[in-house]
Amino acid sequence: LAKTTQPISMDSYEGQEVNITCSHNNIATNDYITWYQQFPSQGPRFIIQGYKTKVTNEVASLFIPADRKSSTLSLPRVSLSDTAVYYCLVGDGGGGSYIPTFGRGTSLIVHP
Amino acid sequence: DTGVSQNPRHKITKRGQNVTFRCDPISEHNRLYWYRQTLGQGPEFLTYFQNEAQLEKSRLLSDRFSAERPKGSFSTLEIQRTEQGDSAMYLCASSKQDRDSYEQYFGPGTRLTVT
Fold it and tell me: How far is A70 from chain B (nearest CA, A)?
């Protein structure tokens, strides 16, 4: 199983861009990188997924360097409602055997 | 699409009792996952179904835990002879089998308190 390492916590202010980096040094060739967001007392919510280079959707961007040993989730212009825990997952679901490993995540606090 | 639902939302039980939780996934999703989450930790994988087949089960999962998905739709998670250490949030998620997507949809969870 590919292990991921993220900062335990981060602080930011409204309107700033936030970048959360995840290390996954032993990522396998078939592994994808997925990020989830979780608010207190709720289940996690999918944010974005990527394999290489850059992926962008309406809420975030995901940057993956060529060696794929890390990835960075970028949240543009955060607001107070972005205060949550963010999880990075690495795994291969194509082969049918996929055990999602969440880790402790990064607790992001956005200040006014 | 009504999302993933879980029942009950809260359960308080005495140590030694059995409890059963239910998860109703999104109707067209053939994959269903169970997780356990304690305060300050990320969700911990318990088991995973593809249709009615249980394909993976955590090696850390006690024999007191059992899950079923008899018709490939809803699933139940049973904990026998509950212990105080079983107190946690139990999350269910579902997804559509897709080689290039890992997007799981989570339910609101069932919070178990064992006294």
Answer: 18
